[in-house]
Amino acid sequence: MTTSPLLHRVALIGAGEVARFYGAALKSAGVQVPFILVRRESAAASELAQQLGAQLCLQADTGWQSLDGVLSAVTGTQADVVARAVMPHLSAGTLYMDLCTAEPQDMESMDALAQQHGIELADLAIMGSVPSTGAQTALLAAGQGAGRAAAFWQAQGAPVRILPGQAGDAMRLKLLRSLMTKGLEALGIENLMLAERMGLRAELHEVLEDLNQRGLQDFMESCLRSHLVHGVRRRDEVLQVRRQLELAGIAPRVTNGVLDFFEHTAQTESLQRAQAVGTQESLEVFLEEARQSSSRS
């Protein structure tokens, strides 16, 4: 942890769990936290302000012009509103670090506002469990202020990956990861439930070991290529899986979504091929069909 901070005066927005962890990290790094901005006063917010030696406030004012940084840790739905209320009170060159799970489009809007005021916005996406690893949780960083923010949090022990794109890309990548991890979470739970009812949970892990050896990227791209050839046949296997879930007394919630995807393939000629094609060409087939479906709806 650095004792010679790259930032000296940083205001904190929010007083929730993430704000508490990162606020404590700022103090440990020797950074002064003069203000904590909240929507309403609470015992928890007052306690955090006392711990950090900060003034609890309900709105930003001219005093915020003395800051060289702001750390926003509110809910995603509040991120854009808060930024519009705060940025006009900041000096040019201030680093505005946003840890909120905001919509990527909101982050782009915030970036445009930041540029109007000469502020450097850092879109920071948290890529782990803050309660488990605190301010050393891995981050993705994008936007004009990504380099400065990354340098500071790396000095506090956090792994930070800087993305070359625009503000909003850190959140886009986080959401892409969430699509995969949350989908696997739901599918894995449903699979384990059925395996347990069948008395085959240990054996299930054994027959899935080839996926561990293969690697996720190879598996995903192989599915992309082979689905155009084998999707219709695989639909029948998913029907069998749903039947087994129903016989086991387990609602096939995730499996129904999987079946819907395969049924769409079986009913769409453009998603059926006699032989496999390359990864990029296969992806273009799916994207073109999605475009046509969207234009018809």
From TrEMBL:
GO MF term (any one): NADP binding
Domain 6-phosphogluconate dehydrogenase NADP-binding: start-end pairs: 10-145
Known InterPro entries for this protein? 6-PGluconate_DH-like_C_sf (IPR008927), 6PGD_dom2 (IPR013328), 6PGDH_NADP-bd (IPR006115), NAD(P)-bd_dom_sf (IPR036291)
**Which Pfam families did the record assign?**
NAD_binding_2
Output the Gene3D superfamilies linked to this UniProt entry.
Answer: N-(1-d-carboxylethyl)-l-norvaline Dehydrogenase, domain 2 (1.10.1040.10), NAD(P)-binding Rossmann-like Domain (3.40.50.720)
Point out the coiled-coil segments of this chain: none
**Per the UniProt record, which residue ranges are transmembrane?**
none
Protein name per its UniProtKB record: 6-phosphogluconate dehydrogenase NADP-binding domain-containing protein
What high-level taxonomic lineage is stated for the organism?
Bacteria, Pseudomonadati, Pseudomonadota, Betaproteobacteria, Burkholderiales
